[in-house]
Target: Sulfate ABC transporter substrate-binding protein
Amino acid sequence: MSHRTRSPRSTRIRRAALAGAVAVTAAGLLSACGYGSQAASTSSDNSTGSTSSASGPALSAGTVHIGYFANLTHATPLIGIQDGRFQQAVGGTKIATQIFNAGPSEIEALNSGAIDIAWIGPSPAINGYVKSQGSALKIISGATSGGAELVVNPATIKSVADLKGKKIATPQAGNTQDVALLNFLAGKGYKEDPKTGAGDVSVIRTDNSLTPAAYAAGQIDGAWVPEPTASKLVSEGAKVLVDEKSLWPGGKFVSTNVIVSQTFLKAHPDVVKAVLKASVDTNAWITANPAQAKQDANAALKTLTGKALPAKVLDAAWSELTVTDDPLASSLQAEAQHAVTAGFIKQPSLTGIYDLSLLNQVLAAEGKPAVSAAGLGAQ
Model:
């Protein structure tokens, strides 16, 4: 694929972003708490993460706080914040970033006002919406489909039947992959406690950054994790037992959404629209330039984690996911049912969880078709 040609201005933007917008240290990572609980406890020293250098007139908010993960499934902010596209879209409004390991702690930060907009998996978004009785957040865009697998030690696990008595890691209690695993196990007749992870299979909640070492040390037998963690485990000798895409019609399912605090959306729709334009533009560039996008995402991961992915891991992980503006809303109800089956929530009403109005305005302005909320849009 062709590489993009950068103007002097875009090069300056890129360098500034690399120096500031994604320079989040490990000390800034928020740790896990409950499954989308309402209380948030963040350190005032770390709650804002890194702040970019803004230029030009500000929009209605002086700063927009954006949360995302150091995962390839969050390729849009990884690339768009690094290369300055997000900062360019919001002009003089500053961008403050916060990096998370998994969705439940990100929901806590959104509830507390520590972040305003976030890239996040569907399960924590669903639970955050349901627990707040529809008042906390809105899903405003899609981001990624695919990019999650159950990978296991082939010496001890050759089939689903071999999972009994084994230790399988997920990123956090109640995160999207945790729910996917528990739903899958329930469908195979395994009994699990969703709170503790105890049961026929021991579900071990482990930070993604620690999972490869835990696997290499024999502390876990496998993991249901997003990319690139899954491909890192494969590089350690693990084998893919279940590619989550195989469980969905057409292989399409939402793995990452964009959400916004309803308070911030009401107060600053211009900022939200600008961030969505940056997201749409970044996704278009990624789709048109996958080879360069893959390298740019890896450069962002190196900035955030201190280490780039080996080429073999990067190639395998990148091939598993697709960026998309479409939230794939028709798959969200199924995701909610998985959370019910897993024992995290009761049967929810998701009516009104989406507000795609600003996204569809951005898409229309760029000559692109509107996306659907599948009957779950704002009322």
